[in-house]
Amino acid sequence: MPDSPTPTPPLKGRGFDSFDVFTTRPDTLFGASFAAIAPDHPIATAFAQTTPGLADFIAECRTTGTAAAEVETAEKKGFDTGLSVIHPLDPTWRLPLFVANFVLMDYGTGAVFGCPAHDQRDLDFARKYALPVERVVAPSPEEASAPIHDEAYTGPGRLVNSRFLDGMEVEQAKAAVIARAEAEGWGTGTTVWRLRDWGVSRQRYWGTPIPIIHCEGCGPVGVPKDQLPVVLPEDVSFDIPGNPLDRHPTWKHVDCPSCGKPARRETDTLDTFVDSSWYFIRFASAPADKPFDRATAEKWLPVGQYIGGVEHAILHLLYARFWTRALKHIGKIDIAEPFTGLFTQGMVTHETYKDPAGAWLAPDEVANGKVIATGAPVEIGRIEKMSKSKKNTVDPGPIVDQYGADAVRWFMLSDSPPERDLPWSEAAWRFIQRLWRITEGADGEGEDRDLDRKLHKTIAGVAADIEALSFNKAVAKIYELANAIEKAPATASRATAARTLIRLVAPMVPHIAEEAWARAGEPGLIADALWPEADPALLVDDEVTIAIQINGKLRDTLTAPKGAPKEALEELALGSDKVIRLLEGKAPRKVIVVPDRLVNLVA
Question: How far lies 481's CA from each of 25, 89, 408, 470, 510, in Å?
Fold first, then answer.
């Protein structure tokens, strides 16, 4: 059990005996460090009347929006109620109760428990409010005590530090917790559906016509198959607000297919999501006489990788899955899931600004905390997703004009994992200047084995990171290689590393790479050059860095020969000046050694 913060009064006995919490990860209950409720949860509403500051916090949450996409991109904030809740698996374990702006009342039960070690949102929240972080899932038993740093562990593994769940795989542990909850009467397994009712009609010209004809006698009648597809008229006018199809003199007037009497064509058009919910099938098969050929589509589908922003993951992804399942249900295609891999990217963000009257200001209207036009003070708001309504957009045109497209592209790839949000900075432009200087280098003689090893590790690492869409990690490795080249003496190894660096950055900064490639006298275009190959012999370390932990917390790092025996690593750790000082002359109760990786001293 994680160390608990200062005990807080229990919620029970203050008007609420309990409340329901929804989670998709019941296996991580022993890693819980807090509980959180939505700003409009009944408990939050009730305690706002007597808890100073809570009503203001709830009001602030309401101004920032409650749509899932808005909540996902907003800064995570919480209000400590000063109350505690009892852990369902241990009546002696209390968790602090927060009101949090990222909990939605209309999803699940409007209440969650936070497991920071295995949920990035919870980890960010826990770091901000100094809450415990306890690993309860590890890829191997040796890593049960491995600390969680800046990234939550969301991969597979077995349960650790979880009492009766220890050793179980994640899915097995989920089932075990649900079974206990149902047996003891404090919980139940359930499914929460995120697909909402979908209004697919739009009152506009741009869209697919809805093949329905309205007859006063027969009601809605489908357009006969031999009259499909319904084609939009081209002689329309957009000079008057509204749907031009309603005003068209002839297009909407047709005879009823059933009774032959005068009728009216449907003038609404379909939401474009209707088309994009199955267009990936059409991409795979596009015959002229039907929507798609089943055998051809099934040969290519499902799509291997789906990449989209938060809003796409919430809306389009669900609709596409629904559409595919519907087609399978009616026997049109034998595929239930359209995509095998999902990657949700983040959004570019920026500060928001208001003038004294409360009107939104664009970034180019503000300088040094004042309105450029009037000199009035500016209210600087939080960093949010770029939005036209809040005027916190940055036109990429001027940035590209000033810094170049390569700098903008490098920034987008480097400053953050692609699933996170990021604010613009000039660091990328400065690296482009460094890159140009580094790749200008002079030839030299002799080998630099350390640089050779660094180069080939970078080649292999960058290739793997690009394949995994971990572009920021690839960029980080390129930064390290660039630093190593700058510090290295002039040798043949340095010249080779500089030329290879050009090829490694080419997919990310193609313009500067082509210029550097030509300056180096290389033939043809770098776009046609082969990706460099890593020498397997240079990927093996002679030495490794060993993490030295005390009670699971990193206290030192030491270098040791690769493959050193456990006894040698233990002796090395106990001889560390930092360890000697922290242990204060006492011998550890237990020593855990993971060869070539870490030594954990249990004091």
Answer: 39, 49, 21, 17, 18
